[in-house]
Amino acid sequence: MCGITGLLSFYSSVEESIIHLMNEELTHRGPDGEGLWLQDNVAIGHRRLAIIDLETGQQPLCNEDRTVWITFNGEIYNFLELKHQLEGYGHRFKTRSDTEVIVHAYEQWGDDCVQKFRGMFAFGIVDLNLRRIFLARDHFGIKPLYYLITKDCFAFASEIQALRKLPVTLDIDLQAVDQYLWLQYIPAPKTIYKQIKKLPPAHYISITFDGKLSLAQEYWQLRFNPDSRRTESEWLAELDYIIRDSVQKHLVSDVAFGAFLSGGIDSSAIVAYMSQLLEQPVKTFSIGFAEAEFNELHYAKISAQRWQTDHYTEIVYPESLDTLLPKLVKHYGEPFGDSSAIPTYYVCRMAREHVTMVLSGDGGDEIFAGYNTYRYWLAWLNKEEIPLWKRYIYPLAQKLKPGRFPPRYANLEGWFHVITQIPKDVRFQLWKDEYHNIVHQPIDSFWQLQRIIADYSWSQKAQYIDLKTYMPGSILCKVDIASMMNSLEVRTPFIDVNVMEFAATIPESLNIAKNDQGKWEGKLLLKKLLSRYYSQEFLHRPKMGFSTPIEEWFKPSGSYRKALEARFLDKSSRLSQYFESQALRRLLSQKRAQPLWLLLFLDEWLLQNT
Fold it and tell me: Is 153 tagged catalytic?
């Protein structure tokens, strides 16, 4: 796990001091060393967190004749198989690193090399023969990759703040701000700046040395294609094999490692397989809160005791927010509204005191239909669990105000209603008059999914949208930044090409269906598999999720309330440049805390960057 940078100047040679400054901004991602390579108008840089091949894995790294150079962030889990295959084609290796495998794979297969990799990756390759830079990002967006384009230069980096070191003018994209208030993150390819883009997951892009930028190309898509031929016992046997294989592949490391253990189903599954594969006890790490309804430490303890792990815990208190918020804002680089970044940071900090790499259970909810939103949506679609008055009032309200009450039973529009953080009408009232036009702008990357999901079942539609948007934009971004702030590598065995492609063939009824109480419940096949290790009470309890008690912290009598009011209502507040003070007051008077967290993060970002 590392930090990568690159710079291409269209009219002059690159100064080493500039690429070094970019690299320095990513020291936390790679505290074990720095590497630079420059030639005329192109340069790449690297900050290393050594995980594999500790002695000879330094970067940037090149091929034998020094015409292909790479800076790489991530891990390729099938690199040994690919190395053997490439040796058969005549390639010779000087290191034991997965980085060199990428170089030779690019030499052998060109742009198509990305289709060979099983892992998490973001890399930049300088090809002196073709006189171009080639960038690629992994299938699911586990590793970030940002790029900047102006009339004078092209640059890329693992984090936005590295690109801010360039002597260029950056303009805030207010439409991206509105999308942030809508979704709690800015979806790819947008960022907070007009000049900076995110390379979407499963895409690559290239630019010639004279500045001709290609369109981003998608090299892989997940497809839901349920297979009805297998029996349930066959599904369980195959799922057991697939997860075990993925966990084993993700354990390849030359440094000490452990696992996050939230107490939920997914992290408990990963710990179960790690414990069976390893001879020594797994080191596990859990975060809790003083507020009981947000604390799963009891369940984490059950799993830790079941597998006799070396278990570490910590409690997060709201007082920590004062010192942590500025750090989070700096490292995320743009507004980011998932408040679980707070406990994620602390669990990463605790883990880094003991290990350099951990496995996590991220991705289990998306691929095995575990989120509460899925079952809520299915209940709505089947007109269940809905108060009788809503069954009659909502259709009427929808006709009178379709913007405020979208059709819940529609396709993508219904799902938008489920995932919206601040509704359109509230955002419209929030923005000052001169910015109202941005509220009505659609998110193109979302609507492009409509064609793909047309024939999917209802839960598969929701899963697919989350896999393509929420998972990379929120979940994976949150974990990458919080872990890299602490120089910790996080690996995700569920977010793996083999696991995902297999899970996409599982019939919907095996993942999500009504339980014995007549309620919709997700992750049923995974829970049945894990019943070998955990009790029914443990597996079928109400889902809590890895969330933060901001509702408690931000309520009128809460510990952080006065600070919120002071920041939002101050006439010199950065928020006052864009938002109506009366609308801010109304949000402060409401019970929902999520809009307040979104605005707090945005306010701190504006304070640091404008």
Answer: no
